[in-house]
Amino acid sequence: MSELKPCPFCGAEATRFTIGDDEPNNAGGDVIVCTGCQASSHVEFGRKENLVSCWNQRAESVNTDLLEALKALKRAHDTFDPDEWIDAEAAADAAISRAEKPHG
Description:
By secondary structure, the protein is mainly alpha-helical. The protein contains three helices and two strands. It has helices spanning 51-56, 60-79, 82-100; strands at residues 14-18, 30-34.
């Protein structure tokens, strides 16, 4: 089984467990819960093998695009080079475009 990533909201450890009979509406379902802020995954009854990968999924590609755009802006600011400003604008446009695309 894959290792759980920390909570995407607070960074605390997460734990997976099967819900018991004390919660009859969800008994037998598996859930992942943050030990810090109590954020949780959906309750999975059927395809439990996908629960960890759903919890571990992060929007890293958008973050990477934004980081590259910020680095380009910093270079442009530091050098006062017009070509660096053009590169920075292109990087920012690419990051915005990717962030606005629906995820699926």
